[in-house]
Prior knowledge:
Blueprint: E1 8-12, H1 17-28, E2 32-37, H2 40-48, E3 57-61, H3 67-81, E4 86-88
Parallel strand pairs: 1-2, 1-4, 2-3
Amino acid sequence: MEHVAGKVAFVTGAASGLGLAMARSFAGAGMKVALADIEADALEQAHASFGPGNADTIALPLDVTDRDAMAEAADRTEAAFGKVHVLCN
Length: 89
C-alpha cells in the first residue's frame, strides 16, 4: 500500500474490532488516520495504543447518527490533515 502513504483515512468504529484493525492497517501504510467512535473511553485507549506522540492520528468521539457531529468531525479531520481520501464506516 505504498501509494497511500501520506493520504488521509477516516475510520468509524475505530475503538475496537474491524474498525481498529483497519485504522492500524492504514497507519501502518503511512496514512494519517482519524479514529472515530461513540465509545469515548475505548477510543482514547485505542488511540493511545498507536504509540507515543500519535502525530499522524487523531481521536474523535462521534455519534455517526448526529449530522452536526459528523460535520464537526469532518472539519476537525480536514483541519488536522487535509482532505480525506478513504472513508470507512
